[in-house]
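anyone seen this seq b4? input:
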Amino acid sequence: MVNQWEPGNNQSLDDLLETLGRLDRLLERSIAVAQTVYGAEAAIDRYRGLHISQSEVERLLGQEPGVPILYCPDADASESIDPSPSSLSRFAWLQQVYQLSPFEMDVLAIALAPELDLRYERLYAYLQDNVTRKRPTVDLALNLLCPSVKAKLQQRQVFAPDAPLLRQGLLHLIADQPNAPLLSHSLRLDEQIVRLLLSQNSLDARLERYCDRSFPTLRLESLPLKPDVQQALWALLHQADRQPLQLYFQGVQGSGRQMVAEAIATELDVPLLSANLAVILADAEVEEILKLLFREAWFANAVLYLDIEALPQSHQSQLLKELQNAPGITILAGSQPWNLTGQDPIALITVPIPRPDFEQRRDCWEAALAAAGIAIDPLSLAALADRFQLLPCQITQAVATACNQVRWQAAARSLEATSPTLADLFAAARAQSGQELNELAAKIQPLYTWRDLVLPEDAIAQLQEICQRVAHRHQVLGEWGFDRKLSIGKGINALFAGASGTGKTMAAEVIASEIGLDLYKIDLSSVVSKYIGETEKNLERIFRAAETANAILFFDEADALFGKRSEVRDSHDRYANLEISYLLQKMEQYQGIAILATNLRGNLDEAFVRRLAFTIQFPSPDADSRRQIWASILPAAVPIAADVDLDFLADQFNLSGGNIKNIALAAAYLAAADRSPMTMTHLRQAMRREYQKLGKMLSDRELSGEQGESQ
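predicted toks r here
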């Protein structure tokens, strides 16, 4: 990784000054020749080159074509401007790595001189017999360095596009006008080469908008990495000074990929160059920028970090080309497996940066809470780490959000802020999740508790068992080792079966409220498509978004699938079964909670049912259950007249909990409109409207109870 020079010694500067001294001697001899050739008036002519005198015309006509008139034949032919720089010199390093000839090094020295001292501009103008030509040209370099016409013609190849100086971007030829001959092109040393030779370590100005250079202090051992990953990185870093190293950090955005790159730079005591690929791709000169970027990292002895998530195929070949020639440590990052292939193989090593596991999340929570001065008990800490599969940066943000929210609430009440509660931390953790899922599903705010559920004892028990599984998941899967025994089924999936309005959605809300997770409702009728393969694509998008949502998925209207029945009669039935199977497969793979709600339990094949962890029946409520529902659905603040008979309503009308809720709400509005307490008249009117929605008619006798129970 380390270049051949020592940044702290003065050898490069000494060699640079010695090189300029040799250049001065060369120019001194050439100026003596020029005084003879140009005449004495050349030195005092302020407009030299701007006009041509008669004597100058005669001189030019008398000159042999192509002869290097400034070359001094008495000079020592063995002396070049930069003959034998020190092995510690940057000149020597540049010559070695780019395999430059002594002549090419002399050209670089001629081009470099005005960057150190502007007097060279005046000298070059004099030697070129033109006060406007202050920069050296191809012609001047050839005239200074070539002893003959033949040598001058041969050395023109040094300035060819495929020659090292131009091909490697060390030197640029600048034309003063369109279609100018090669000899008139000015020589401009590339900015990176100038900074290298002058030992200037600032970032190339052309790269400032594309990347950042930092000097990290993060240590590798402080990161939440698996021990085997840390050990492997240490081993690779010990080899980095002997051979190039290309790494590919595979992990999701925010998993700490750049933090690992920072730690690597810290351990090597070198800078980190982090590039913004999105900004680079927006530029028209992508190829040139990538070339500059890789060379900047090389010259600065820096680790280069490049997130290639957004890299289009059209620019892959250029990246691979630069990567194949990169001599230092290059770190690429992305979420997908490495799949870029070029003509030549790349010795690239994939380093997995997975999402943190339970222990790592717990450590991150503990560190973030401690940094914020928040004390927390071990059980609460474990609950946060288990319920929310957050990335380290999200955990840090969640703690900050919780603290800020508490401060805001305290300020609103003119109270002194206290530490966030566990509920505050849960709310902040939820806020870090589900952004992508919000576009695909409806988020439900849980309102109900166990007291609101009116179900058989066994159904209540199963719902509580779901919550218990969540509470003890780490103990069973992690500490007891079941995680190593299961390839799928590590999450919790359930089937809620029952008629509409029997409490399936309410039960899902109760679970969400109990365990502190967000609840997302997916209407399967909007997911199912008549086009083959589209249903699976829609489901794939939902489950992919759910991976980072830390949420309960509630698939409603499953009858959109099950209504097609599982009995195979034709190709459409066969495909419907494939859709059901795909949904159940994704539910098994999902590591959170996935609930499927259906009104048609009988249409689901038993083989499918056996793949679910829970199957809970939601029966239509009997009279006693309806009585409980009527009593619980009416808020305490509702004024109720003495004639309201909830027992009569429960016994007389066979309704689901959803119907009862609708009737109670409608009756409340009728009472409010009459500016009176809720009466049986209001309830009967609301009852009539509800039955109308169901496509049924109620007679006055039924509403008054003169007939038997109404269905």
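The radius of gyration is 40 Å. The longest helix spans residues 11-38. kinda curious what u guys think
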